[in-house]
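A note from the maintainers: we've had questions about how concatenated examples are separated. There is no special marker in the raw files; a new sequence line simply starts the next protein. For clarity in this README we add a label.
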Amino acid sequence: MAGLNPQLGDQLRAIAVLRWRLFVNSLRSTRGRLNLLSRTIAGLLVFGAAFGGAILLVVLSVFGFDFDTVGRRRADQRADQPR
């Protein structure tokens, strides 16, 4: 590892191996597999919501939706007139 002494690199590698073994061993139980499945589904839902929102903003912008004037009065309307 660049810029680190060899002993620190060995320690980080050992920690990475131990963390990987903990992950693999956690998948041996049904609870561990269901936990991984639920985290995967939740992650996909969050990604889908973010990506879908971005696509929605692009589509609205392409079709001329003006985000700056939402809820504002037109120049020819007074404050006491209904919208």
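[label: protein 2]
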Amino acid sequence: MQENRCKNCGGYMEKDNTLNMYICEYCGTKQAIQIEEKNNYTDPSPLSTGNSKIERIIEISLFVLFKILFPIMVLYALILCFTL
């Protein structure tokens, strides 16, 4: 957990990810997390390889498989069932 100093009292501010704010432990002052800090998110996915090109290829492949080919195969199977 990242900590900063409170501008009001100098106490430690803890990061609260649910509220997207830093909150002072002593005086309760709240400070919004900057957008660039929120974007420093690391993907906890165990499939993450760190190589964005490979991840993009996998993403496109899965899209083609499940959104395009699978429905076509199901439709083809239904057509075969009803024509037999």
